[in-house]
Design brief:
With 265 residues, the chain is α/β, with parallel strands linked by helices. It is built from 8 helices and 11 strands. The strands form 2 sheets. Strands 1, 2, 3, 4, 5, 8, 9, 10 and 11 form a 9-stranded mixed sheet that branches. A two-stranded antiparallel ribbon has the order 6-7. The longest helix is centred in the middle third of the chain and has 18 residues.
Length: 265
């Protein structure tokens, strides 16, 4: 590994690293179909073990989905599951399952759970106590996995995760948890909720907005700029670019991509 000069191709690739965070049924998985995929390079959607959103994977001839099949009579150790996720991810990125224009990891919050359970020897899923330093080891395994994907040569990378309320600071003596200000971030354990914000060029918050007109369907939107409630979103780039982005757009990468490319040009 070494330094290289940032060029247009690398800029395009960095711009196309996206995290979509939101609650259940907010359009996260459904919106994946808006990312590039065609006969020259398809989309590969890896649903992490435990993720139940398979029914929302786009039905498209150029989309391949991979779902974890549970054997009711056999419980596989978390270490083996983490290994298999890594193996399949590496194969997809290497083109062993067909040309890959877009890699999509669905339910990233589920995967970190298996990593934590692995490094704690099963204590995490069993609800047992474990050394706090093991969180650091799990974070590193998780971030190494993300780096392998986001720094790959695949044109587009997108992950989905649930969101949740994250306290702004630690609780002081005598305080109640409700006394601490909190904001919405990706629903990942400990410091990862905020650390992951630096791992992507684009982090959007998936939301549904009901129309005041009952005859109109609810809108599925991506929030691009943080507000008093949602801090887990944002787009990296020059201020003159990001300041012009709207707060909300339809859940469509083609819309956001054209905004970013138009501003770049």
């Amino acid at each position: 590994m070494s330094f290289v000069e940032l060029n247009q191709l690398l800029w395009e690739r960095m711009r196309s690293r996206v995290l979509i965070a939101g609650g259940p049924n907010t359009g996260k998985t459904t919106s994946l179909v808006t990312f590039p995929h065609d006969d020259k390079g398809g989309m590969h959607v890896l649903l992490y073990p435990g993720e139940k959103g398979g029914a929302s994977v786009p039905q498209d001839p150029y989309v391949k989905g991979y779902v974890w099949e549970v054997d009711p009579g056999k419980k596989l150790a978390s270490a083996a599951i983490v290994t298999q996720v890594g193996k399949l991810t590496t194969e997809i990125l290497a083109g062993k399952h067909g040309p890959c224009q877009t890699f999509a990891g669905d339910g990233l919050h589920k995967f970190i759970g298996y990593i934590l359970d692995d490094v704690t020897g099963g204590a995490f899923f069993d609800g047992e106590e474990f050394e706090a330093r093991l969180y650091g080891r799990a974070y590193q395994v998780f971030l190494d996995y993300l780096n392998d994907v986001t720094q790959s040569a695949v044109e587009n990378v997108v992950f989905t995760a649930w969101d949740g309320s994250e306290a702004d600071r630690a609780k002081k003596p005598g305080e109640k948890a409700s006394d601490i200000p909190s904001h919405t971030y990706p629903d990942l354990p400990g410091r990862l909720a905020k650390l992951i914000m630096g791992e992507f060029s684009v982090v959007v918050s998936a939301q549904t907005h009901k129309s005041r007109d009952p005859a109109k369907p609810q809108q599925y939107l991506w929030q691009l700029q943080r507000d008093d409630t949602v801090w887990g979103c944002g787009v990296k780039g020059p201020t003159e670019v990001t300041s012009k982005l709207p707060k909300y757009i339809p859940q469509d990468w083609r819309v956001l991509g054209s905004l970013l490319m138009g501003e770049k040009k």
